[in-house]
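Researcher: Please translate sequence to structure tokens.
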Amino acid sequence: MSTLKVDSIESRTSGNRVVLPDTNNYPPFRNIVINGDMSVAQRGTSTASITSDGYYTVDRFKLENSSSGTFTMSQSTDVPSGQGFVNSMKLDCTTADASPNYLIFSQRIEGQNLQYIKKGTANAESLTLSFWVKCNETGTMQVNIFDADNTRLICKTYTIDTADTWEKKTITFAGDTTGTLDNDNLRSFQLEWFLDGGATYTGGSVTGNWEARDNTNRFAGATINLGDNTANEWYITGVQLEVGDSATPFEFLPHDVNLQRCYRYYETIVEGVAGNKCIAMGGYYDSTSLYLPIRYKVQKRATPSLDQVTGTNFYIRYSNSGADEFNQFSTARMGRDSGLIYNQGQTAGTSGFIADVSTNDATSFLAMDAEL
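Model: Translation complete:
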């Protein structure tokens, strides 16, 4: 057996086979958070005029906004230098509100993905959160973990030391020996960056320990209110939540793997382009009922709903009777692996004949939504 130097990694060779050892000893898929590098944004790269709760740009991250100003959320290319990141999430206040209710940036996590942290047992594991953050203000901000199964909460704070500068934050949350998590596909944990809050979410204290949820603690330690000034901006990337008392380097996944993980919760079926783009082949059940079967790329977390952009003549079908334009789809017999979408009454065809259905507008959009 000889020793071969490959890219400064010592490797063993046996014949023509090269065996590269694991030089970092970090387990794969250790990051509980999905899309922590903000690289996947199936819904689009920017959404303006946000005043309510929803998933808007970067996949798996939800913005919850209740009377806390108006925001633009975007996938940004402003990132910490030399760390390997290409994207971040940017939140920009466009209309201020001096009397907020809540503003939360969060990711919700299935209980069946958390069983190995052994919550609610004597062997409960601690969790370490690391992320890069940038804000135009200096001061204290807050991040929490909410246990939705047992209505429990742990709160921690972090500081923005220098304005308009990328800073890495590392926070460890103790293991919780109270309250086991449900082993299902529903929300068990909510990792939340609390960015603004009113009287309901202040007035308490940040103990840093697990406790029965007290909403007055969720924003109690913060001194920065992101919605109080239109100059305010907040960026985040490199979000990693892992078992243990210390942070490991961010786990970069291949883009296709990251995208597949996002598909479980949200999958774009087709988005409009200049010219037509095929959606699927379908057929006429009767002369006015056009049905299209859709097979998903990845099994969904739960039976999805159809997310669509509709408008006059946004879609078109081609069949034996020529072309016919229509506006929208409805759903039937939806499942976790596939579903049936249809249009009734807006097209005319021949029962039993097939049809090729495509987009007919640059802004048309179809997706399957199974978010938590």
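Researcher: Any highlights?
Model: The chain has two domains: 46-263, 266-369.
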